[in-house]
Amino acid sequence: MAGIYIHIPFCRKRCHYCDFFKSTDFSQKSRLLAGLKKELESRAFELASDEIDTIYLGGGTPSVLLIDELKDLLATINQNYTVSGDAEITMEANPDDLSQAILSAIREVGFNRLSMGVQSFAESDLKLMNRRHGVMQAVQSVKWAKRAGFSNISIDLIYGLPNQTMEEWERNVRIAVELDVQHISAYNLTYHEGTVFYDQLKKGVLKELPDELSLQQFELLIKILGEAGFEHYEISNFSKPGFYSKHNSSYWKSKKYLGIGPSAHSFDLNSRRWNVSSIGKYLQGLENNESYSEAEILTEQDNYNDYIITGLRTVWGVSEEFVRAEFSARYLIHFQKIKDKYMQSGHLIFSPEKIRLNREGLFISDQIMADFMVVESC
Predict the structure, then answer these.
(1) I need a labelling partner for 145 at 20 to 30 A (CA). Which of 154, 179, 233, 354 fits?
(2) How many angstroms separate the CA atoms of 356 and 164, rounded?
(3) In this predicted structure, which of 17-26, 350-359, 369-378 has the lowest mean pLDDT?
(4) Do domains 2-251 and 300-372 have the same CATH topology?
(5) Cα dihedral value 275, 267, 50, 314, nearest 10
(6) How far is CA 292 from CA 62, 75, 100, 277, 285, in A?
(7) Is 270 exposed, middle or buried (0-12, 13-18, 19+ CB in 10 A)?
(8) Residues contacting residue 344 through CB under 8 Å, at least 6 positions apart
(9) Closest CA to 324 of 314, 312, 332, 316
């Protein structure tokens, strides 16, 4: 089993927190879509022996594409790859791009999972983040999606926003629960260099929320969603039983995936590949049969660190026996040393099959993962 990710690098507007590769210039859209199809066709041999069980259109904003353009991309995949009959086919969408008719058409062309960039149910937050939609558009879009036949809907939320109170965050989470979606992704705001928020933070226009308050918001999120029947299966992801994101889970479980489009990443179990983060250079490479990507063969240290980073983020955790079987003795010795440290501090849950973070561990997950990783010779 393998997955395909397609990066649609277009946005109508730049959100102030976002550092993903994207462009508000749509002049190259037709050319870019032709390039995506060409890359899909030219790289089909890489997954010739694999069945595709997840397809994911991300961005950027895939919902800026026309229905016929979306249909064409899915047709190209079906013509060149073996797609499972029950494949999870996801599209990211912004509420202001959607209507009842558009959502029905998206469902009809083959998408069976929707990931909606809501981010907040407070108008002031949406304005601060420079989002295009309003609260009622977000609520209505979820209702329209259900009427269109979507029974697997995910919404994104952001916490830790400047001046966001516990009461405001609780209202966000409870509205999300009331909408009765199957999946919620909630991310703590990060000030990425190159974003408007980062510049405003450095200039003193914005003030970062204290870590203590962000952690309280995270704890409240876990509590409310747990009471509502959501399973906390990855640091930032919660789902109703049976609705884990198959595509994202393939990243965390180290399965093969093909990344199509500018800035997209691929993984074939032995190497990583990433396409250039430039529409112009990406298209020039494709059209002139020149290179448009870089790649690296993974070392044992890379594989060990990847296993730690992806495994400790999830409910599946990591296995000491797997480390013993798959890696050199020095990695096992390092693993056991750090495991003992965090077992004694009370941040891990241990069983014969796996080691995973408990709630206290989740709060300092970055520090724990960094300690487990090997950055030089043990």
Answers:
(1) 233
(2) 30
(3) 369-378
(4) no
(5) -130
(6) 22, 24, 38, 9, 5
(7) exposed
(8) none
(9) 332
Instruction: State the residue for tokens 């870590």.
Output: 211
Number of residues in the chain: 378
% of the chain surpassing 70 pLDDT? 99
Q: What is the mean pLDDT of residues 281-307?
A: 96
Write down the domain spans for the chain: 2-251, 300-372
b/e per residue 106-134 (b: at least 16 CB within 10 A): bbebbbbbbbbbbbbbbeebbebbebbbe
**Structure tokens given for 126:** 């949406």
Contact 251, 272 (CB under 8 A): no
324-333 contact pairs (CB < 8 A, 24+): 327/300, 327/303, 328/300, 330/377, 330/378, 331/300, 331/304, 331/374, 331/378, 333/378
Nearest to 286 by CA among 299, 295, 296, 276: 276
Identify the helix (H) or strand (E) that includes residue 318.
none
- 229 Rama class: left (phi>0) / alpha (psi -120 to 50) / beta: left
Percent of the chain exceeding pLDDT 90 equals: 95
Cβ within 8 Å of residue 271, ≥6 positions away: 295, 296, 297, 298
d(CA 265, CA 293): 9
Instruction: Write the pLDDT tens digit of every residue in 50-87.
Output: 999 999 999 999 999 999 999 999 999 999 999 999 99
Please compute Rg for the chain using Cα positions.
21
CATH assignment of 300-372? 1.10.10
At 314-343, the pLDDT tens digits run: 999 999 999 999 999 999 999 999 999 999
Question: Under CATH, to which class is 2-251 assigned?
Answer: alpha beta
| CA–CA dist 274, 167 (Å, integer) | 41
Of the candidates 345, 349, 322, the one whose C-alpha atom is nearest the C-alpha of residue 335 is: 322
Q: Which phi-psi region, left, alpha or beta, contains residue 350 (left: φ > 0; alpha: ψ -120 to 50)? A: beta
Buried residues in 6-30 as b, exposed as e (16+ CB within 10 A): bbbbbbeeebbbbeebbbeeeebbe
Do 274 and 294 touch, CB atoms closer than 8 A?
Answer: yes
- Residue 378, pLDDT score: 47
